[in-house]
Amino acid sequence: MLYNDTIAAIATGMTSSGIGIIRISGSDAFAVAEKIFRPHKKDKRLSEQKTYTIHYGTIMDGKETLDEVIVLLMKGPHSYTAEDTVEIDCHGGVFVMKKILELVLRNGARVAEPGEFTKRAFLNGRIDLSQAEAVMDVIESKNAYALKSSVSQLSGSVMRKIKEIREKVLYEIAFIESALDDPEHISLDGYPEELGKKVDNLSDEVRKLLINAEDGRVLREGIKTVIIGKPNAGKSSLLNVLAGDRAIVTDIAGTTRDTLEEQIQIRGLSLCMVDTAGIRQTEDVVEKIGVDRARKAADQADLILYVVDSSTNLDENDDEIISFLKDQNVVVLLNKTDLSMVTTPEMVKERLHKPVVCISARMETGINELADLLESMFLSGKVSFNEEVYLTNARQKRAMEEAGESLKKVQESISLGMPEDFYSIDLMDAYESLGSITGESVGEDLVNKIFSKFCMGK
């Protein structure tokens, strides 16, 4: 147990609601609660009750009744923080929650820092650092797949994978050190070649996690999706169909002059949708800036929706757009199919070998087909999600990259015929980098920085 004091905070949103929760955790949690809680059964003492029980009564400030409540008891180490924990469920008024919290603080607790409940869970060994970060990922999940990935990480998927790799690395470190200490009984003959094969396998595992880290970013932040096309192709109309009437739509080409961003949910997928200015050759200074921004947004996109006006012929502007889309992740939307089609899917596919969906933004047709395609792309691996382990933030990815670099140095030392203690040094660096992901090799400053991003009461 790393803390002796007792903390408290409001764990629910500071707004009027059906219920409010004041959370208390620490060695004196039960004693603090007993001072202010009057049970319905007068002879009941909270400290004498079993863990995981609920008790009905009132919160009293001296002789004044503040609220009718139920109190939940969770005795350490079998609680979220691994400490004695009490949750007071009161009516969800902002004023009454504040009054009860003030009363708790006057009776022996202090205000919890942001994320301190989860920080204590980590420092008390209840969860590792990757699980702690997953707590906030669950709270901030923007789609079904992000939630599923976060819950998987919360259950320990990252921790188990990192632990497995670290154990393999540690075994080799221990073997090398033992052999160097006792060369008469432990031979290193042929060991560099054997170690090289093992490090190759470890490097493959690290590379796979790094590849999945990009998918983890997509899961967490959503698929950055950019709508591009010629002026008046129907880009803004498409955005309005998907997000509601957000963009100005006219028959005048070049109406959209800048990028417009919206968060859209399709079949549980989160799309960070960006509508852009129509791409064409123009002398208009403002429109030209919009076209440049459209190109830049397309370069940074995870997915591009290329809107083509099917009622007109493909022209040099389309050729220009197609020229920089060939290596991108693109879905072509053949719009205005409610009119006479001049450009067909076959004509588009001759120039750009990408999936084509026929839609009419005006009639709102073809949207289900688009949703089906996006869902299949997301699940098939182009924008992938499956049961793999995902690193979901930049800190974890950076640590994994450092581990990969250390393993690469081991291979270099082997190829140069360096002494075995060189292998041990770089293997230890890899071991430490991997440990920083789960929190086994991190400093206090980093821990404080991570938990400072949490909301109060979590």
Question: How is this structure best described in words?
Answer:
The protein has 458 residues and is an alpha/beta fold. 46% of the residues lie in helices and 18% in strands. A 7-stranded mixed β-sheet has the order 3-4-5-6-2-1-7, covered by helices on one side. Strands 9-10-8-11-12-13 form a 6-stranded mixed β-sheet, with helices on both faces. Strand 11 (303-309), helix 10 (316-323) and strand 12 (330-335) form a beta-alpha-beta unit. Helix 4 (129-139) runs antiparallel to helix 5, helix 5 packs across helix 7 and helix 6 runs antiparallel to helix 14 (420-438). The chain is flat and about 85 Å long. The relative contact order is 0.12.
Looking at this protein, list some descriptive labels.
6-stranded mixed sheet, 458 residues, flat
